[in-house]
Amino acid sequence: MDGNLTALQERLQHRFSDPQLLGRALTHRSFSADHNERLEFLGDSVLNLAVAALLYQRLSNLPEGELSRARANLVKQDTLHQVAVGLGLPGVIRLGEGEARSGGDKRPSILADALEAVIGAVHLDAGYGAAEQLVHRLFKDVEINPQMPAVAKDPKTELQEWLQGRKMKLPIYRVAGTLGAAHKQTFDVECEITELGTVERGIGASRRAGEQAAAAAMLLALKATDK
Question: Which of the residues 40, 44, 99, 105 is marked catalytic?
Fold first, then answer.
């Protein structure tokens, strides 16, 4: 594993001052209680900010709403999964025995979450600048063009645009609970609009899928009352 982690750091072009951060970023909850979910939470925010800055530079003529949609296309699970595979994360992620037997090292949700955790780990190890540079390197071969916003909006993006159009704050997502064995969990996620005092919930096979389901439920509730 040490040799694999050294090679991964070379691919990341970042040498960790605290190698334990990288080890934790690659540890699924099925393997150890010292797992990567907190780093994933941090990395998700760092990733969104870094991608927003990248799009601001590369798509200088797009308005806010279309930039938000373009960002959603870049940080969605499918895109992150492809980047994680290209980075070689399937060969270094640490999984519990049951998760490993069920093909967890190929599961898009696990790999996308691990990539976010690695970004979060770089941020803790060397600061936001290093993490932003990593994100820009990871996405340098991903096509970014003005046609990207033509892709259909996902529920989280649509909800964000609905709120922004009404000058309201972004929603808060939090995991209310998890169900099932570690290798086959479902995530119960809450979506809260604090200004409206409204909370809706959604269930998904990953935290990301749960957030999308909760956002979809919130959109239905908001549209039902916004007449």
Answer: 44
- Within 10 angstroms of residue 5's Cβ, the number of other Cβ atoms is 15
Which residue in 40, 99, 105, 116 is the catalytic one?
116
Q: Is 44 a catalytic residue?
A: yes
pLDDT bin (cut points 50, 70, 90) of residue 73 is confident
> CA 39 to CA 20: how far, in whole Å?
12
- Mean pLDDT within 88-95: 93
Domain boundaries, the chain: 1-151, 153-227
CATH number of 1-151: 1.10.1520.10
Model confidence band, residue 151 (pLDDT cutoffs 50, 70, 90):
low
Structure tokens that stand for 42 in this block: 């941090």
Angle between helices 2-12 and 77-87 (to 10 degrees): 120
Q: Map tokens 């609905």 to a residue.
A: 162
- 37-58 vs 108-126: helix crossing angle, rounded to 10: 80
CATH topology of domain 153-227: Double Stranded RNA Binding Domain (3.30.160)
Dihedral angle sign, alpha carbons of residues 154, 160, 163, 165: negative
What DSSP assignment string belongs to 171-199?
PEEEEEEEES-GGG-EEEEEEEETTTTEE
Specify which residues 174 forms β-bridges with: 190
Q: What phi, psi does 166 have (nearest 5°)? A: -110, 15
